[in-house]
Specification:
homodimer, alpha/beta, 7 strands, globular
Chain lengths: 227, 227
């Protein structure tokens, strides 16, 4: 076990160096970078499908799709008139900063206002790898149950926002919304929490308005040289 | 990246050796060992809560609960009159064979007929670590969407059975059951597929009858010295 920990730390150090390079690049370009993390099937791609039509007329947007093998998510996003690059990790359970740096080389433009990175579906490992993003957003769907913050604390501690998705299924589950929000705020008092349904569109406006505000701030910081 | 792969292989080799020792021990004791793997929130613990009352009068049963930090699952299972040991992995994203070997030392009896191992909620990494089990069972809930077999093939290729859980929510989702079963069988033609609701109990009888048959076979093999 000791061997594993040592190697993990070395890998994380190398990752942090490339993440810092990515972050410098994003700051120079004024790009707000959002790293989306969740269990498989919590609705990351569907959330993007709802979000892109709201924001694509206001901002230059790109999407990096992380998946172990398939290109299904990138195929879905390609229909939304934004640039998309698929990273296939070939079995690796998370994205890392070097993978993102390589994906950036595939983008056709040097500057975007907003870059979404959809991580591999996994509530554990992606939380450990800084990609150089501005913020992590964790998705939790109401069908996953209310005990997830206690069981997977790192992702919720390190996120700026949590999207509680599939609100349309609330009437058919025993999901305790108030309990979850209380537990999330105990882990991370600064957390923004959005309740929405990427399927029906309920709550999407608040989420997109928040992203719009953050994207505008990042652009202003870049122009003033403080980004 | 090369470094990472090398270390992963060394770790897997060490794991395989302990897994083989676990397997020899289980064969000698005539214990059928079931390794339950799924995304967070797919319903592993609820499935056990439905399964244990069906089987506990017929067999000596123990449960090993894997979780990163919490003891919530073990607390739930402790109410079902079976022996339960919690493994906290302290942030590690999967169980490994040495963790299971240590948990076995905490069990009060030398022989059980049936041992359930509930892995950490993660559809990726647990599939790579042999624990010495007889079979892996992958859970997939209908709310996770029909694209999961294509996106996470290893777990479904290495499983003996897939439990498609939360059938009570089928009417409220666009889950394509036939497509999923077709894709699962393409990945793994030998796969047993159970559709059930651990919440309502629908389909539980078929699942428990199958486990009962396998447990009886393992006992018979142990008695005849072929296990």
């Amino acid at each position: 076990m000791a061997l594993k920990v040592v190697m993990g730390q070395r890998l994380l150090k190398a990752n942090e160096q490339v993440a810092a390079e990515n972050r410098t690049r994003f700051a120079g370009a004024g790009t707000l970078v959002v790293n989306l993390i969740s269990s498989p099937g919590a609705g990351k791609t569907t959330l993007l499908e709802r979000t892109l039509p709201w924001l694509r007329d206001k901002f230059r947007i790109a999407v990096i799709e992380g998946d172990m093998y398939s290109v299904r998510d990138a195929q879905r996003i390609a229909g939304y008139e934004v640039e998309v690059v698929q990273i296939n990790t070939a079995g690796v359970c998370h994205l890392d900063a070097p993978m993102v740096a390589r994906a950036l080389e595939e983008l056709s433009e040097a500057r975007y206002d907003l870059l979404f990175i959809e991580n591999v579906g996994n509530l554990v490992c992606p939380a450990e790898f800084d990609l150089g993003e501005d913020l992590k957003v964790a998705l939790l769907s109401v069908t996953e149950g209310a005990d997830k913050p206690a069981k997977y604390p790192l992702v919720f501690q390190s996120a700026r926002a949590v999207v509680i998705n599939k609100s349309d299924l609330l009437p058919y589950t025993d999901f305790e919304l108030e309990t979850v929000v209380t537990e999330l705020k105990a882990l991370n008092p600064e957390l923004e929490v959005f309740l929405l349904s990427a399927k029906t569109g309920e709550g999407i406006k608040e989420w997109c308005t928040w992203l719009e505000k953050l994207t505008g701030r990042k652009q202003a910081a870049s122009r003033s040289g403080t980004g």
